[in-house]
Each structure stands twice: as C-alpha cells, then as structure tokens.
Amino acid sequence: MLLAILFSNFAGHIILKRFNGVPSEERLHWRTFLVKLGADNLKGARNEERAFCFFTKNSNSITSMNLVVKFKSVYIVYTVLGGVRIYIVGKDEYDELALTEVMFVITSSIKDACGKSPSERLFLDKYGKICLCLDEIGILENTEKDRIRRRIGLKPPNPTEI
Amino acid sequence: MAQPLVKKDDDRDDEADYSPFLGIEKGAVLQEARVFNDPQLDPRRCSQVITKLLYLLNQGETFTKVEATEVFFAVTKLFQSKDIGLRRMVYVMIKELSPSADEVIIVTSSLMKDMTSKTDMYRANAIRVLCRITDGTLLTQIERYLKQAIVDKNPVVASAALVSGIHLLQTNPEIVKRWSNEVQEAVQSRAALVQFHALALLHQIRQNDRLAVNKLVSSLTKGSVRSPLAQCLLIRYTSQVIHESANNNQAGDRPFYDFLEGCLRHKAEMVIFEAARAITELNGVTSRELTPAITVLQLFLSSSKPVLRFAAVRTLNKVAMTHPMAVTNCNIDMESLISDQNRSIATLAITTLLKTGNESSVDRLMKQITNFMSDIADEFKIVVVEAIRSLCLKFPLKHRSLMNFLSNILREEGGFEYKKAIVDSIVILIRDIPEAKESGLLHLCEFIEDCEFTYLSTQILHFLGIEGPKTSDPSKYIRYIYNRVHLENATVRAGAVSTLAKFGAMVDTLKPRVFVLLRRCLFDNDDEVRDRATLYINTLGGDDAVVETGEDVKEFLFGSLDIPLVNLENSLKNYEPSEESFDINSVPKEVKTQPLAEKKAPGKKPTGLGASPAGPPSTVDAYEKLLSSIPEFANFGKLFKSSAPVELTEAETEYAVNVVKHIFDGHVVFQYNCTNTIPEQLLENVTVIVDASEAEEFAEVASKPLRSLPYDSPGQTFVAFEKPEGVPAVGKFSNMLRFIVKEVDPSTGEAEDDGVEDEYQLEELEVVAADYMLKVGVSNFRNAWETMDADCERVDEYGLGPRESLAEAVNAVINLLGMQPCEGTEVVPNNSRSHTCLLSGVYIGNVKVLVRLQFGLDGPKDVAMKLAVRSEDEAVSDAIHEIVASG
C-alpha cells in the first residue's frame, strides 16, 4: 500500500499531499513526523537529488509521537528536488525499492513538467500540472515521464512505447 | 493543458517568497468558480480556478456540504467544453471532490458518454473517475464496458480498467472476481504496464485459491515476463508458493529455485534484489543456495544509490542472524558503510558486523562505533547495545574493551529505554563473565551517583546487594550505596537500606560499620525507609560486634521469594486482623494460569464458603477450604495441587460439566462442577459414575452426591480415589452423570413430586504426569541451578521426530511437564534453529525441580532435545526423564 505522498517547502509548509488509506486523525501526525524527518536529514541538500531511505522496525520513532500505527513496519523514502522536499510512505509490497521507483517517476515527471528542478515558486506556478502528474502516477499506474506528459495532455502514448 | 497562473519569468523564478497563491481565500475562489456557469466558457480561466480549488483542498481547507455541492454542480457544466486541458482538470477535480451518491447520478451520464467515446484517452480517464466515485449498483450497470476495457487493444485503456479493478476489489470483490477471464487474457498483453497491472489484479482475485496461484506461477515462470515490475511481483508470488509447498513435501528439490537464481542475472536492479531477498528468506535455506544471492547483495553494498545500499545491508543483516558465516565475505564492504552519511545504513552495517565479526576485529570495530554513536537516535543505539552484548558473550576475552564502551555510553545523554538496555547488558555480562564482575560493578556504582531513573537505581542497588559482598573488597561499594540514603528519593533510599543490610549480613568485618549507617537511617522521614532499617537492625541482631550472621537470617535476606506476588497480595487482602498472625506458608505457590470464568467459579454452593473474597479469588485457597469442609476428604492431608477446570461436555449442551482434579499425597479428588441449563428441569441426587478400569493404580474410596441441581445454579459433586502414596500415578477415567430428573412447571416454578432416573454420558478424563507438578517460578534461574546439588542431575538426549516448528516442540514439552517457564525462554525467535528453555516447578512431595531443555533442529524438521534435570531428590530427576520418555 502506498500510504502517502507529501510535498513541503524548506520551511516545512506542506504544499501538496496525497493520502491513501490513512485515517484522517493520523494524517496530522504523519505530516509533522515527515517534516521533522526532512528537517533533520535533508539540511544542506539543496538543488541536488538525494534519495534517503528510512525503515522503522515496529515504528518505534512514530509510536513515540503517540501515533497509533497499525502496521508492523513502514518504509519512507524522501528527497530534495530544487526548492521542495518530497516524502513517500509505503508498507507491505511498497518497500524501499518500490518507493524509490515511485520517487523516480515523481521527480522525473515534475522536472519534465517544470522544465527543470523547480524552485518552490515554479512548483506553485505549475501546481495544476503537477496535480495531474500525481493523478497519472497513482499507484505506479504510469512509470515514464514521456508517457505521463502525453497523458496529461490527453494524448495517447507513443505507438513505439507499446 | 493547465496554464501557469503567472507568466513565466525567469528573473522572478527564484523569488521563493512570492507565491502565486499568496493571500488565497476560500470565499473568493468559490466566487470565482461561478465562471464555470458562463454560457461562453473560458477554458484557461476555468483551469486556473480548478488549480486554486485543488490548492485549497491540499492545504486542508474543507468545504461545507452546500459549498461542495455547488462546486460539484458547477464543475459538471464544464463537460460542455471541448478543451482537452480543461477536460483533464475536470476529471481530477471530480475525483478530489468525491461526490455523494445522490450527486454521482448527475455526472454519470457525462462520464458514461466519455467511457464509450471514440477517443481512447477519454475512455481511460472516464473509467478511472467513474470507478472511483461509483457504488455497487452503478458498477453492475457499467461492468460490461469495464470487461471490454480490460482487453482493449489500447494499453492506456486496459491499464485504467485494471487499476480500477484493483481499487474496486476492496469495496466490491464479488463483481471484480467475475472478470478473471479478461484479466487472465491481459496478463499475456505485449504492453509491459498492462501485464504488470493484470498480474497484480489476477493474483489478488485468486490469492485464496492456492492451486490457482500455483498454476499461475508455474505458467509465468516458464514464459518471459516483460516488465521488471511484473517480474518482481512474480518473484514474490513464487516465494509464497515455495513457502507453502515446503509445508507439504518434506524431501526433494526445492521447486522454482532455478527460476529465482535465474532472476539474479536480470538486467533490472529491482528484479535482482527481489530475487536475492526471496532466496535469503527461503525456509531452511542451505549455504549453497545462499551463495549466489549473497554475491549480488555484496555488489549492491558499494552502489552509489543509497537505497540499494540500504536494501542490501538490511537483507544481509537478516541473513547474519541465521547464517553469520555466509555473510563474512561482505565484511570489508560493510566496514566502509559505517561512515555512510545515512544513519540507517550505518547502524545496520554495524550490527551486521557485530554478528559476523571475529575476535581480532573487535577492537577496531569498537573504535569506529564510538565515533558514530554520538549522532544517532536512541532507538538505533539500543540496537547497537544489544548487538555488543551478544558479541561480548561470544568473545568473553574481549570483555574489557566492550565493558569500557558500555560504561562510556552510559555516561552520555540518553532516554530511559536506552539506559535500561545498557544497564541490562552490563548486568548480564557480570553474571556470565566472572572476570568482568568487579569492573562492571564499579561502572554501575558510578552510574547511580548520577542517575535520574528511580527504577534503574533500585535495580542496580538490588544487584549490588547480591554481587557486591562476594567481591574481593566489598567495602569500596559502601560509599556509593550510602550516598543514596542522603541524596535520593524514598524509593531509592529504601533500596539502599536493604543493600546495606545485605553487605552487613554477608561480610562480618563490615557489620559494625554497617550498623552505624543503618542506625542513622532510623531517623529518615519516610516510613518504609525507617521500617526497613529497624527490621534489618533487629534481624542482624548484632551489638556492634564482629559476629557471624546466622543461616536463617541469610536465608531471610537472600532467599528468593518463591511465592508469586499476586498470590501474596491476595492472601494479604483476605487476611483478617486477629490474634493469629499471618502465615506466609498459607500463600499458594502456584502461578495462576488463567482466571476461571465467573460461572464455573466454585464457592457458590450454599454449603460452601461465605462471601467470595474481593478481587480475583485465589482459587487454590478456595479449593482447599472447600475440600477441608467436606468430612470425607478431611483426612487426606494437605492439598498439593488443583488443576484448571477441564470441560467434559461440549458448549451449549443440556448439562454443562467440567472437572477440577485435586491432587493429594495419597489421594485424588475429582470435583465435577455441574450446571443445569434446562429451565423446565430439576435434577436431584446427582452423582458421577466413574469407570477407572484404565487407571489401575486408583481405587475409588468416596463419592459425594449433589442433592439438588436447579436451573442455572451450579453445584458440585465429588469422587475421591486412593492411590499409592507419593507416586505420580496416571490413568484414564470415563464418566457418566447419573441423576433423577423432575419436571418443573414454568409458571409456578414448582417441581413435580415424581422423578425419573436418567444418565448422561460425559467425556473421558485423564490424570497425567503434569498434574503432579506445581508451576513455581524462580527469579534467577542460573543461581537456583547452581545452588542445586549437581549429583542429582540427570542428563539425556531425545529425538522428538518431525515437528511443525521448533516453537511447537518447545510448547509440547512444557505442557507435558506442566512446569513454569523462566526468564521468557518459552518464546522461540523466528527462524532460529536451536533454542534453550528453562523450566522450574515443585514436584509432588514438595521437591524443587529445575529443567534445562536444549532443542536443535536436526535435518529439515526433526527436532532433537537434550534434557538436563536437577532436583532435590535424584529419584525425582529420574521421574522427570521417565515422563519425557513415555510422553
């Protein structure tokens, strides 16, 4: 299960979020937890792409925030892209490798939509387009940036891709 | 296509402070949304407004029901526009708004139209939206289109339908399951993504049908799966099949191993890793099977991608728990990961190294870890501490450097759990490595000088009291202990007083000085501290002279309290202040396994006990009183043990009967607890006819019938047997309930005068060896074991034959012996191939028994067991072996 995809700026403000099967009362905890995780570990990682990976056995660090997590273990992959930080949380079959795959699709299609690694401002400028990207990516529904670009424009994929 | 809200301007691009959504406000945006109703739609403007709405929703803004409905209706108007970009935004917006059932109707027709449109992209998107917002009834209407879409030649449409199927499986599984033929066809698709989605859905549909999954895997592993993602799924399903088939056939080659091994040479890293992990997780994997997987994981360790390093080191860490030797080849690569900037990777690398490292590398490793400890979180530190503890037990010669390391980190900042892990580790090392004792104790002394955790301070003081007096120079610890009396809270002060007393009792030369200190404690402002000081001054009974302490005093101070605290608490609560002082011997020693259900609890009989005691009743106590009140059983002596009730009837039968076995030295009493569940009947003269022909050593001596058993008012009848004194006789008993039944008039509740004799067959009952064993725990098994005479030890080995798992075998032996597992050793870690279990108990005749069981897996399923028994009587040690041999 892909539990969450979050985008925040460097100040820790959430810009865009997607939750999947996370009860609404737990969402706030996740937001706080992830933003702190990023603040602790992504400092100084500006404008370079770096995928970090974090695994909590029995979710120790999360339970300590009074968050009742039902899952035995969750996987978190997070990175900096230009002026935004991206966090992805998954469990079960969405392990660190699958999440990295999702992260790769997200970063490459965002860069594609913005023309480069976006600053926070550019990200907000292209907000609608990025929402469409995420909608196309779904739960690994599409994995290639070209295909996603074409689909956002409601164009069929390149025949060569098939 | 969505247009940028502000014209793209590279100069202003980096001004991060300026947001296009600055000052955005819900009311204003909702006003703007009225443009959706314009007869002449402006697609660009509409897209901008939708973007703003999306932004608001993402910021956690909520719309009221009225607002949401209004926006939703407005959005549906946008279907009139032919603008492609706008249409795409509309699809997203409808999904985000997740309309309620009555609103869905409005948009259904538009979406249905799109779903049957000639434009593939409209079809795909309409399917996704419709499946997201639809409910069961609507779904049956569109099912036909969805089935077609799954096998559509356009991969976009097929994928959209398949993924929708995956989502719908959660809410409408019975509908999705009807699509399996189409999905099966889609698995063969030439498009990689379609194949991936189809495989995922097909497996979800069939996951409960083992045979179908098996078939699916067999056919796909032969063919070529195009997409790496699908290949990963296939590997997961394959390992699941292997796991399940391993439970059925014991011997022979492992099926599908060649497929997994082949995947190690795949071009996608994802597939390679998945296969490597699947191999390492195989049940009972051999080193030959492991080698190729370890080799590829080793390559990943030096990858430039952190996620691959993490995945590899995490997998190797798991392998190291079961096959440490297989991982040693990777040690050099692993060492370079200690300095990895990702702390998760570094911690995993260290703990793996600690498991696989050899004696010569310990010092080097410790140096590297020291630098690293300061910048990781507590939970990682605990992992490291635990790894160091097991390393030290493995290489006792290295205790000096490891103990130093532990004491250094003990001084640094840290939370309770972390400190507790360190203290526990030091205590275990002191117990197991005699050379480490003195330095370890001093480290602990220094720690309590500045310890903020009361729990840890008292634990350490207790430990010091036991170990300190046995050292070469006990006097050096006194200062640390006495400091506590001045500086700490009452709990710690009381602990310190007890510890001082122990030093006084054990070390005769220190006694006068300890007395001086204890006397000072008499003026403490806390009751408990003063009480303890008074107690110890009196028991040690010195008048400042250097005299030897009596054995009974030592027993009082150091003897373990072999009574469960719960039982003691209950007995104290039940004790009524009187002339007769409280007798600690009256406290039952047996650990209570499970509280009896209220209905079955004895003592409801009018002839029995008075008011039932407050709190959970101490059952053994209650049984003893009950039995001694019956004249026939009064001369049987002291009750040794009462079993938990054994049900003799199925649930919800006319008469519910369970039996409690009461064991005396020369007798056994069966107490049948009967309940009549038929309102129209009254039972009289209820007895149980017991046939003991399969229990040769037992002879029936008494039977106490139950005079009357009205509806829903439980009563007891008893049957007593004589058996050879002190002998753990076993046997099987068949039971028949015999009674006179009388009809009861439901309106008046009066019974008729005449009754009919009737019988009711009950299930059989067995007296087994475990009935002669009391579950009595010991606080420190090692100490208890060593104080027991080694001459009475009996050791032998047994083959337990093929077993389901090690844990199952361990449980079976524990139940056979009926003893109390100590120190949590009844829990067998997953995947372990050997296990040691410690048991203690009291055998009939009040003989203490300790058992050490060592289990090992011999071959794939066969369990071998080494049984060592120590007891106060060698005949009992032999008897325990007999129980196991005949069980």
From TrEMBL, chain A:
GO cellular component: COPI vesicle coat; Golgi membrane
Keyword Aminoacyl-tRNA synthetase carried by entry: no
Keyword field: Cytoplasm, Cytoplasmic vesicle, ER-Golgi transport, Golgi apparatus, Membrane, Protein transport, Transport
Any one GO biological process: retrograde vesicle-mediated transport, Golgi to endoplasmic reticulum
Subcellular location: Cytoplasm; Golgi apparatus membrane; Cytoplasmic vesicle, COPI-coated vesicle membrane
Membrane topology classification: Peripheral membrane protein
Job description of the protein: The zeta subunit may be involved in regulating the coat assembly and, hence, the rate of biosynthetic protein transport due to its association-dissociation properties with the coatomer complex.
Subunit structure: Oligomeric complex that consists of at least the alpha, beta, beta', gamma, delta, epsilon and zeta subunits.
Family membership: Belongs to the adaptor complexes small subunit family.
Name used for this protein in its record: Coatomer subunit zeta
Automatic annotation (TrEMBL), chain B:
Positions of the UniProt region annotated as Disordered: 593-616
GO cellular component, one term: Golgi membrane
Gene Ontology MF annotations: structural molecule activity
Entry membrane topology: Peripheral membrane protein
Domain of life from the UniProt record: Eukaryota
Clathrin/coatomer adaptor adaptin-like N-terminal domain residues: 27-540
Alphabetically ordered keywords of this record: Cytoplasm, Cytoplasmic vesicle, ER-Golgi transport, Golgi apparatus, Membrane, Protein transport, Repeat, Transport
Domain Coatomer gamma subunit appendage Ig-like subdomain: 622-767
Ranges where the Coatomer subunit gamma C-terminal domain occurs: 770-884
GO biological process: endoplasmic reticulum to Golgi vesicle-mediated transport; intra-Golgi vesicle-mediated transport; intracellular protein transport; protein secretion
Localisation: Cytoplasm; Golgi apparatus membrane; Cytoplasmic vesicle, COPI-coated vesicle membrane
Record's subunit section: Oligomeric complex that consists of at least the alpha, beta, beta', gamma, delta, epsilon and zeta subunits.
Summary of the function given for this chain in its UniProt record: The coatomer is a cytosolic protein complex that binds to dilysine motifs and reversibly associates with Golgi non-clathrin-coated vesicles, which further mediate biosynthetic protein transport from the ER, via the Golgi up to the trans Golgi network. Coatomer complex is required for budding from Golgi membranes, and is essential for the retrograde Golgi-to-ER transport of dilysine-tagged proteins.
Family: Belongs to the COPG family.
Protein name per Swiss-Prot or TrEMBL: Coatomer subunit gamma
